[in-house]
Amino acid sequence: MPVLVASDLDRTLIYSAAALGLTMPDAQAPRLLCVEVYQSRPLSYMTETAARLLTELGGAAAFVPTTTRTREQYRRIRLPGPPAKYAICANGGHLLVDGVSDPDWQARVSARLADECASLAEVRDHLMNTADPLWVRKHRVAEDLFAYLVVERELLPQEWVKELAVWAENRGWTVSLQGRKIYAVPKPLTKSAAVREVARRTGADLTLAAGDSLLDADLLLAADRGWRPGHGELADSGWTAPTISALPERGVLAGERILQEFLRAARPAR
């Protein structure tokens, strides 16, 4: 039976220029491969070594990109290796099968959200009414499932983020601060639920996972083994669990290390 590898993308396997974390001398910096172009400009990268490792992983496991990105944002990415049969977008809101959203899964997600948490409209109104235009640059709704703000981090009051997290918690939502974005996501909308569905469909008997943010915690806990890089919300809070390995690498080199760990774990299993 196959090994399933479910990995977050941004700041886990792929990195914007601002997140690369190239602290070594220029002459020692790794060669980079651009894997995403947006508005005719390069946007996201991985090292060439990571690209080779991801290609190898495609022959050793069922690789499932698992992201909070919308479907449109995900489709901009061109990962090396064989095309992924399954991909998870919108934090589990959409399960793509050969690039097409599975309507049955989408209906199941919609039913859970209607039953188990406050509405998107209520959360969006709260964000619009409490976020200060002084530090908010954009208000966004993703796939009619969750909301996020693009902010100026240096101006963002940390107390506001804490108050928002408490307000959201009482309504069945989770708040996550990632770079310049503040996400408000319904608790029933999880990557782990979608990954379990893929594991059921593929018959996988071993699930491996990686991620860096609070929204990845449920994904890591649902896997048999998981890894988190040395940066991100989980690292900053010291979050860990018995089946989770906390890696020291930060930035784009963490992506290399995560793929090395995936391959080591997947090959003996096969």
Q: Determine the fraction of residues in helical runs and give it as a percent range.
A: 25-40%
The Cα radius of gyration reads 18 Å
Overall morphology: globular
Runs in which pLDDT lies below 50 for 5 or more consecutive residues are none
β-strand amount? 25-35%
Q: Which class do the helix and strand fractions yield?
A: alpha/beta
| Annotation, overall tally of beta strands | 15
Main sheet makeup = 5 strands, parallel
Secondary-structure element order, N to C: EEEEHEHEEEHHEEHEEHEHEHEH
Averaged pLDDT:
96
Q: Strand arrangement, largest sheet?
A: 5-1-13-14-15
Distance between the termini: 8 Å
Could you walk me through the main structural features you see in this protein, from its secondary elements to its overall organization?
- The chain is α/β, with parallel strands linked by helices.
- 43% of the residues are buried.
- Helices cover 34% and strands 27% of the residues.
- Helix 8 links the parallel strand 14 and strand 15.
- The model has no long low-confidence stretch (mean pLDDT 96).
- It starts with a strand and ends with a helix.
- The longest helix has 18 residues.
- It has nine helices and 15 strands.
- Strands 5-1-13-14-15 form a five-stranded parallel beta sheet, sandwiched between helices. A four-stranded antiparallel beta sheet has the order 9-10-12-11.
- Helix 1 packs parallel to helix 9.
Features:
270 residues; 34% helix; five-stranded parallel sheet; 27% strand; alpha/beta; 9 helices; four-stranded antiparallel sheet
